[in-house]
Write a structure and sequence with these properties.
By secondary structure, this protein is an all-beta fold. It has no helices and eleven strands. The relative contact order is 0.32.
Length: 119
């Protein structure tokens, strides 16, 4: 099992910044991809950004140029730096880790952290 603990959410004004962190523990061997998803009220969970163990990243179109995902493999931690935040970024943000075992991907999720962008 993999445990994911998120931190860093909160209330911020439009145009502000937040940094989310997600620390992985437990059976972390063979974690391939870590990332962030978000879910706003009444909407489906969507991918925000993800990063592979080799450092390849991809982003949801609406956050490109504003959000940056990074990963510290030594600390088993992934970060999401969010700049120029907009009210539409308001959501619960979930950390995700994908572990590969015998060629089969397994998804693990954190408990979620609330991000609210409002004046």
């Amino acid at each position: 099992q993999v445990q994911l603990v998120e931190s860093g959410g909160g209330l911020v004004q439009p145009g502000g910044s937040l940094r989310l962190s997600c620390a992985a523990s437990g059976s972390i061997f063979s974690i391939e991809t870590m990332g962030w998803y978000r879910q706003a009220p009444g909407k489906q969970r969507e991918l925000v950004a993800r990063i592979t163990s080799g450092g390849t990243t991809n982003y949801e179109d609406s956050v490109k140029g504003r959000f940056t995902i990074s990963r510290d493999n030594a600390k088993n931690t992934v970060y999401l730096q969010m700049n120029s935040l907009k009210p539409e970024d308001t959501a619960v943000y979930y950390c995700n880790a994908v572990k590969i075992r015998l060629g089969i991907p397994y998804n693990y999720w954190g408990q979620g952290t609330q991000v609210t962008v409002s004046s």
